[in-house]
Design a protein that fits this description.
11 helices, globular, 48% helix, 2 strands, 2% strand, two-stranded antiparallel sheet, mainly alpha
Length: 252
């Protein structure tokens, strides 16, 4: 799965569609948090949103105000509404104004997580919504490890933007070491991890993420998230795991 041909069929394609780092980060952020369900539908809807941004996501965020709200009229993807996107864009504009860029906002998040010895996603959630006074419903789109969520979509974003030496992922947030990343746990990954004896926990929650990531660290402590490709690929490409590798053969 970690091959160039994978890019066009996955939402990571939106990072590769731009040259500018901020464009890549903003497009990748929306591609990750909208990554629910079939990938072809996700790609279509993210593409629609990027088009509504004039195909210049970083500029759109920097200049976003109510005059741009009409660009979002009628937009919807699963539980995302135009109001949700409006509030997310307003928050991103605010963070960009304060920190100079989304890149530097993430630098602040990472430095805080190190100083406070807290999980980076929990720090991101708190920092992202610091000062926010809009509708509460938008908060459900940004996971929080302190709430025991698997944080799949935000760890997918970090896998895309932190891992160096990858033909798919990009080392955009080059200050975040891949060693701190967790496996983006979706149903495909969880199912096959259990079949292979890598995951014992039945719930797809934060504890399952920690358990599976610790198992992957036994293989590579510096880059455990890379094994997401193998586990995800088995499910998406409909490949069967050779029986000799299966621990729990009862899981279909």
């Amino acid at each position: 799965m970690e091959v160039p041909s994978y890019i066009d069929s996955d939402p990571v394609c939106f990072l590769h569609a731009f040259e500018d780092r901020e464009d890549r980060l903003i497009a990748g952020f929306f591609a990750a948090i909208m990554a629910w369900g079939r990938r072809d539908i996700v790609i279509r809807k993210v593409g629609e949103l990027i088009e509504r941004m004039g195909n210049r996501p970083a500029d759109f965020v920097r200049n976003y105000d109510f005059n741009y709200r009409e660009n979002l009229t009628g937009f919807k993807h699963r539980t995302f509404t135009e109001e949700d996107v409006h509030n997310l864009l307003s928050i991103l504009r605010s963070k960009t104004e304060i920190w100079g860029s989304f890149y530097h906002f993430w630098k602040h998040v990472y430095d805080t997580s190190v100083t406070e010895n807290r999980n980076i996603i929990a720090v991101f959630h708190d920092a992202f919504f610091d000062g926010y006074v809009g509708a509460e419903r938008v908060k459900k789109h940004i996971a929080n490890s302190d709430k025991k969520s698997s944080c799949k979509r935000l760890y997918l974003f970090l896998r895309w933007t932190c891992r160096p030496n990858s033909c798919v992922d990009m080392n955009l947030l080059d200050f975040i070491p891949p060693a701190i990343l967790k496996i983006p746990l979706d149903v495909h990954v969880a199912r096959h991890a259990r079949r292979m004896g890598l995951l014992g926990r039945k719930q797809n929650d934060w504890q399952a993420v920690l358990e599976l990531t610790e198992r992957c660290k036994l293989l590579d402590v510096t880059d455990p998230a890379k094994y997401d490709y193998a586990l995800f690929g088995i499910g998406v490409m409909h490949h069967d795991v050779p029986e000799k590798y299966l621990i729990n053969k009862s899981i279909k």
